[in-house]
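User: My collaborator sent over this chain with a note saying "see what the structure looks like." That's all I know about it. Can you take a look?
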Amino acid sequence: MMEKPNLIVRFFSFLLKVLVVLVLMVVIAIASFEGVTYYLTGSLYDLRELAGGGNDITNIGSSSEEQETEIDETNMESTLFFVDSADSGKEYIALNMLNTKTNVLDVLLIPTNAQVTVGQELLDDIQKEMPEAKNTVNIGDVARAFGDDKYKMISDIMENVTGLTLSGYDVMTQKNFQSFLDMVDTVEYQVDNNFSYRDENGVLNVIEGGQTELDSEEAVALLTYLDGTESEESARLERTNVYLQSFFNTLFAENSNSAIYKKYTNLAESGDGRNLADMESVFEALDPENITIRILQGSEADGVFTVDSQMVQLQVATLAQQAENASSSGSQNSDSEESSESDTQSSSSSGQDSKDYSIELYNSAYVAGLAGEWEAYLEEEGYTISLVDSYQDEGPLSTTRIVVTEEGMGEDLLTYFPDAEIEVDEIDTGGDIQIYIGTDSTDVGGEDGTSSGISDSEEDTYSSDEEETSDEESSYGYDDEESTTEEESSYGGSYNFDTDSAE
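Assistant: Without extra context I'll predict from the sequence alone. Here is the result:
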């Protein structure tokens, strides 16, 4: 009579254990899903929709306010420019950001095979022609799928990615683009490695490495050449960047603004109903010193260039603000140039206030987040930081370097960087002062110039961590194209927030 209760107890005890195990398995499954999701996307997701059988997943990781970057478009007119080749899609895509008040033009080169992540509403439109498409799409695939409507769709994608409102887009055929390049006889260019191409007659031509002068046919070959490496698109963009900067300088030196306008409007076709005839005043106001070319923020790994929307919007917002502030900076520089030598010497002895200037910060110490920390600190001190980037061409630097455009500038910054060296040089990135932060300035805000005690081994660690980014990138000016051996390269022209974000 006493065995029956024991059996019942054992049964329920066993059942309880089974239930506990099942619950634990469910908890582990959910936690694993959330963990993997957070690792891949940086945010958490609400699984309640999945429980209800729906396909919509609600992002609850961070608020929309945190994810969105405010961009001042008050005086900004943004357009896309395409060079189209009938056989291979777009050979060249650029985002043109023009400040109509200061006439500063920022050109962002866009990889033609870039992977971009789009919102659900835009994805619905894409899936009308690409039913298999996911929220991450390849621009090249979109171009091939949409035919005559590819420009409009890519424009919509770039609006989604950048956060900008585009005014429209212009298109040139590759032949017309070459005709536009013909406005200059040749452009000086340093070719790193030999490369070959076939001309319109099918004849194989070889351009040998070294300093050379490229004509329009050779330039098109250079800008479209892919070397077959894992970072071939990034390398192509680097070449394009360097060439176009030199091209524009030569173009404006050899031609009037009016002639450039007439040539452009004869060769380009505008989309979305824009009238190119209305752009004459824009061309008349352009100055090559106010034209800067960069690469859209992103990274390339295993031959795939991935665009980071949040980084791109930060890049765009910074450029827009920098362009808006250009007039006051220019006025200050102009006044300085007109001052006498005695005035300069007096200013040098007393020291100019760097708070009146636009400052660019470069992480040259290979310490993650260092430039960002200095940015926050100096802004609290009243300084204007227009750009934050990494600099790896010489790094890591042991001594902080402050680059100014004239004697007397930047001396007040020695309060924060007491061991820094001040150099007088030209700055072509739009800023007035550049600070290349070395390992002697890792003590953010410290006035004693002491380092945080980074050992040689630690420097090696930082260097190793940074090897995943391209050592070709530099906002101080793009050097010639170099092939990379790293598994992943990060490109952003003058911006590389990936290598200077706090961990």
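A starting point for your reply to your collaborator: DSSP finds 16 helices and 22 strands in the chain.
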